[in-house]
Write a structure and sequence with these properties.
Strand content: 5-15%
Strand order of the largest sheet: 4-5-8-3-9
CATH class of the largest domain: Alpha Beta
Helix content: 40-55%
CATH topology of the largest domain: Rossmann fold
Shape: globular
Number of domains: 3
CATH architecture of the largest domain: 3-Layer(aba) Sandwich
Structural class: alpha/beta
Number of helices: 20
Bound molecules: adenosine-5'-triphosphate, magnesium ion
Number of strands: 9
Largest sheet: 5 strands, parallel
């Protein structure tokens, strides 16, 4: 309770991570989740709600909270039924909730969320299930990713994240290593000028201090251990021949950085590459869907993956692609997802200003920003729209 009341997400994370407190512990008469949702004065409320959910807080406790009177039956109830239940004090709080918090609560409740997380439940990759509270939408991407990660395989894991700008490819790549708590090295592929530059490149992560070691040094340091290498914007490499350095590590799990040097064991590296290849295909596929607003079904996603693979092969060459474990297209956002992204943008850009706004003002700003949505720019167009509106409001 102290961590929550102090409005400090880092401390909440630490407490949950260390197991000092559980996500479903009671805070006074209510659950930690109900307490946080009701604490409307907290600046970092949404972030802490996400953390609680990511660590396993059960939203059905919101219904129980009102019903936990002596003699009354505890019932599992969905958010919808809490909203309808006017005798539940949570109902008016949930009513006023911003679209992002609403989205995260609904996501935690969805059976699809549980099924997908179960795929990696027993594996080393289990902490990745929490990425569902970083990434809005892209459920099918995560489902396919978790399937691949749960399969026993001798070959190195190579995942290609493809599709339109601003849909969360780099975001997912960035969170991957941090959730698993393994080191990550990010190579910006646009900067390479010759074949061996890849091993000489420093990590470029805007959220970390500039790295002082090259990819080659990183891989020697991490030899035989789990780690992540992100190859950002792989198709924008000056000359695709430079990618040939990846053939051996992706096939054999070993590589040599220069002729005459010993081989380094890189079999435990997870390689994540991002690219915009096939972004037009993603939108074409979307236009041809029967119900474009509905979330993608597994069948539709498999279909889209099938369309994308030849396109990637054309661009990066079949010999490289044949060593890629899976190619994951990122899908267009639904309206709910856009609303959630816009609300997150509002908090990310000006949490202290937003705290003083009424729920109606927040809602109207979020909805208005959707008018400026550009599919080809994805979430970035919503961040821009929200920031323009904030400027006008302030
Ligand atoms: N699915 C998402 N959920 C939440 N936020 C997102 C999502 N996609 C994008 N964003 C927001 O937009 C920003 C840009 O997204 P990101 O860097 O992941 O785009 P990208 O898909 O890698 O695009 P590009 O192809 O242009 O590199 C992120 O930092 C995040 O704030
Ligand atoms: Mg990117």
């Amino acid at each position: 309770m102290f961590a929550l009341a102090s409005d400090n997400p880092a401390e909440v994370r630490r407490v949950l991570e260390s197991g000092e407190a559980g996500p479903n512990d009671a805070v006074g008469p209510q659950s930690a989740l109900a307490f946080t949702l009701a604490s409307t004065q907290l600046t970092h409320r949404t972030e802490m709600v996400k953390l609680l959910l990511a660590y396993g807080a059960d939203p059905s406790a919101l219904a129980e909270h009102a019903r936990a009177r002596p003699g009354s039956r505890m019932s599992r109830a969905s958010l919808e039924s809490v909203l309808r239940d006017e005798s539940n004090p949570m109902s008016s709080i949930l009513e006023d909730m911003d679209p992002a918090t609403r989205y995260w609560l609904a996501r935690a409740e969805a059976p699809q969320t549980r099924r997908t997380s179960a795929l990696i439940h027993r594996s080393f990759f289990r902490p990745l299930a929490r990425v569902r509270y970083d990434l809005i939408g892209q459920d099918r991407v995560l489902e396919q990713l978790f399937r691949v990660l749960s399969m026993p395989s001798m070959a190195p894991i190579v995942v290609l994240l493809c599709g339109p700008s601003g849909h969360g490819k780099s975001l997912l790549a960035r969170k991957f290593g941090s959730l698993l708590d393994v080191p990550t090295h990010t190579v910006n592929m646009t900067t390479l000028r010759s074949t061996h530059d890849i091993w000489r490149s420093y990590s470029m992560n805007p959220y970390e201090a500039p790295s002082t070691c090259t990819l080659g040094e990183f891989l020697i340091e991490q030899e035989g251990k789990r780690c992540v290498v992100v190859l950002d914007e792989i198709e924008k490499v000056e000359d695709e021949k430079m990618l040939s350095s990846l053939l051996m590590p992706w096939e054999l799990g070993r590589c040599s950085f220069e002729a005459g040097h010993r081989h380094v064991d890189v079999s435990q590296v997870v390689w994540l590459a991002t690219s915009n290849i096939g972004h037009d295909l993603v939108f074409e596929h979307q236009r041809e869907r029967q119900v474009p607003e509905a979330p993608l079904s597994r069948e539709e996603y498999v279909d889209l993956m099938g369309l994308l693979r030849p396109r990637v092969s054309e661009r990066l060459g079949p010999s490289l692609l044949s060593r890629v474990t899976t190619v994951l297209p990122f899908a267009p956002f639904t309206k709910e997802e856009k609303l959630a992204i816009a609300a997150e943008a509002l908090y990310a850009l000006a949490a202290d200003v937003v705290r003083t706004m009424t729920p109606a003002t927040i809602d109207s700003m979020v909805r208005k920003s959707l008018d400026a949505y550009l599919p080809a720019e994805g979430a970035r167009s919503l961040y821009r729209a929200v920031s323009t509106q904030l400027l006008d409001a302030v």
